Amino acid sequence: xxxxxxxxxxxLNQRLTNDEVRAAQSLIDALISSERQISxxxxxxxxxxxxxxxxxxxxxxxxxxxxxxxxxxxxLMLRYDVQRVLQTAIRQVxxxxxxxxxxxxxxxxxxxxxxxxxxxx
Length: 121
Known about the structure:
Radius of gyration: 15 Å
Order of helices and strands: HHHHH
Shape: globular
Low-confidence stretches: none
Number of helices: 5
Number of domains: 1
């Protein structure tokens, strides 16, 4: 079975105000921080920040080695609605409803609930 790789893209509308762009950048910076990337990697999400040391995470290392030769698209799993959680966090920050820190804290809690297999948020 091929490893499953996925990615998240952030698209900014060209009509965003400077404050909205700064809020989006704050969220992006927080998501790609070494600390956050290690947290993601512990759950099998390949880090986008290439400076993150994944040598202590054997699962990540094996996925990265195998990725070049065999890759499969991410399956659609409604039960693990990670995309919805991340999109909600991004939209709330861009709308100024929450701070990037609060959005990450809430998303982290919701994603842990999903990963742990308890009730969906």
